Amino acid sequence: MKKTRLNQVHREAGGRLIEFAGWEMPVEYRGLIDEHLAVRTKAGLFDVSHMGEIMIDGPEALALVQYLTPNDASKLLPGQVQYSALTTPEGTFVDDLLVYCLAVPDKYLLVVNAANTDKDFAWVKDKAASFKVKATNESDRYSQLALQGPLAQDILQPLTELDLGQMKSFHFAFGQVAGIDSLVSRTGYTGEDGFEIYTLSETPDVIWKAIVARGEPLGLQPVGLGARDTLRLEAKLMLYGNDISDKTTVLEADLKWIVKFQKGDFLGKAVLEKQLAEGLKKKLVGFELIDKGIARPHYPVYIGGQKVSEVCSGSYGPYVKKAIGLVYLPIEFTAIGTELEIGIRDKMVKARVVPTPFYKREKK
Amino acid sequence: MYPENLYYSQDHEWLKVEGEEVVLGITDFAQKQLGDIIYVDLPAAGKSVEAHQTIATVESVKSVSDVYSPVAGEVVQVNQALVQTPEIVNRDPHGQGWILRLKIKDKSELSKLMKAADYEQFLEGQEH
């Protein structure tokens, strides 16, 4: 099992460690609900060093990224980030990812899911062969910390010379954090304001400890993968393997906003265009349970007594205080308010289609 | 840590004998493994159960866990407080967080269960 450079820190903080995607990662420290609420109301600090980083370097880097992803990376200036996907020729997902523009048009960093890093790198490398670029898997060199929550900026600002007040959402800059060279980006996977801090340093624990020292008196908690999952679900952020996969298209996942048909050719474009023209047959929607219980992944979903689907992500949302989830439904059943039944062990439990995200933070 | 007056199962349930009835709950080890409990699916009073059958289900945010009855019997009462405040199981697993009462069929079945000291030793084998 791989360990991040913060492994010892998690042990000292009382983190309960589990295996995730080949990594030994903290699933929780003080308790999932406490950690979840700390991120919503104060701040939380995550070790997400298991995430993958793939560097695309060379004169045709932009051209390759444009070919691999449906969003328009040509809109990015250095210092900007974009949510996008690696798509198959069928318009389905190899993965979802963040594209960091380091230099136009020749240097881009792709940040991908831990569980998919090797697959993604093989995919990118294969496609890169016909472009003037070098693709390198930098995943093991990077550590990544995420500081998320309404107090994130207040906690981080005294630790860096970067002017965080000037850093807009989905922008990034290079600078030191607690004296350690870092890339700081205003991004996250929780639905809150916050930052993700990437460093090549061998001692990312210096950053971790400085943030904890500054943040804990203000209510910051270390947060494990358990709360990371419930936070992202409340914000309806996708989890590869649960909500999106190589069986579901970008349009079916209700991510049309990352598909820019005008930008030129990209993998899956023809299929997606056809799907858009003909209309979707199924779409990912949010539901909440009306009756008691919790719908979990793969539980059967029924409408009018007929099994129509299975739950993708499903959990209890500690902030919204409801059992919530995502499911692909035949398009005729995707209207808000549509009543569903979910098979939970030997019971049929009532649920209904609701607007998403389940949680949206109030903008200041 | 683990009360002397309870019996313990390898599935991390505890039983407390009160006359012809037993009170059943999950152990502190079990609640820690589950994390924050948000729902307990309770059986109806009167339900009969064989030894080692599922009698209730405890759900935390992250996982679902069946509660097995270590002995055969009939449910005489369930802890209604868990409907509104299931987190009592986290706070007081061996006391206020009891799950149900059973009328026990055959008291000799209790001899197959562990006493506190044995259970603690059993747990040491579970942890690494």
Question: Can you give keywords for this protein?
Answer:
heterodimer; A: 364 residues; alpha+beta; Gyrase A, domain 2; Alpha-Beta Plaits; Elongation Factor Tu (Ef-tu), domain 3; 3 domains; 6-stranded mixed β-sheet; 6-stranded antiparallel β-barrel; B: 128 residues; OB fold (Dihydrolipoamide Acetyltransferase, E2P); 6-stranded antiparallel β-sheet; 20% helix
Describe this structure in words.
The complex is a heterodimer of chains A (364) and B (128). By secondary structure, chain A is α+β, with helices and mostly antiparallel strands. Chain A folds into three domains: 143 residues, Probable tRNA modification gtpase trme, domain 1 (Gyrase A, domain 2, 2-Layer Sandwich), CATH 3.30.1360.120; 86 residues, Alpha-Beta Plaits; 99 residues, Aminomethyltransferase beta-barrel domains (Elongation Factor Tu (Ef-tu), domain 3), CATH 2.40.30.110. Chain A is 20% helix and 34% strand. Chain A has eight helices and 20 strands. In chain A, a hairpin with a 5-residue loop joins strand 6 and strand 7. In chain A, helix 2 crosses helix 7. The termini of chain A are far apart. Chain B has 128 residues and is of the alpha+beta class.
Average pLDDT of chain B, rounded to a whole number, is 95
Count of separate DSSP helical elements of chain B? 4
What number of structural domains do the residues of chain B give? 1
Mean pLDDT over all positions of chain A: 97
Strand content of chain A: 25-35%
Distance between the termini of chain A: 42 Å
Write the CATH fold name of the largest domain in chain A: Gyrase A, domain 2
The dominant shape of chain A is globular
Biggest sheet statistics of chain A: 6 strands, mixed
- The total of beta strands of chain A comes to 20
Summarize it.
The complex is a heterodimer of chains A (364) and B (128). By secondary structure, chain A is of the alpha+beta class.
Please write out the topology.
The complex is a heterodimer of chains A (364) and B (128).
Chain A: E1 2-3, H1 7-12, E2 16-20, E3 23-28, H2 32-41, E4 44-47, E5 52-57, H3 61-68, E6 81-87, E7 93-103, E8 107-112, H4 117-128, E9 134-137, E10 143-148, H5 152-156, E11 172-177, E12 180-185, E13 194-199, H6 205-215, E14 221-222, H7 225-234, H8 269-278, E15 282-289, E16 300-303, E17 306-317, E18 322-330, E19 339-344, E20 347-354
Parallel strand pairs in A: 1-3, 4-14
Antiparallel strand pairs in A: 2-3, 4-10, 5-8, 5-9, 6-7, 7-8, 10-13, 11-12, 12-13, 15-18, 15-20, 16-17, 16-19, 17-18, 19-20
Helix pairs in contact in A: 2-7
Chain B: E1 7-8, E2 13-18, E3 21-26, H1 28-34, E4 37-41, E5 48-49, E6 54-60, E7 64-68, E8 73-78, H2 81-84, H3 88-91, E9 100-104, H4 116-126
Antiparallel strand pairs in B: 1-2, 2-3, 3-9, 4-6, 5-8, 6-7, 8-9
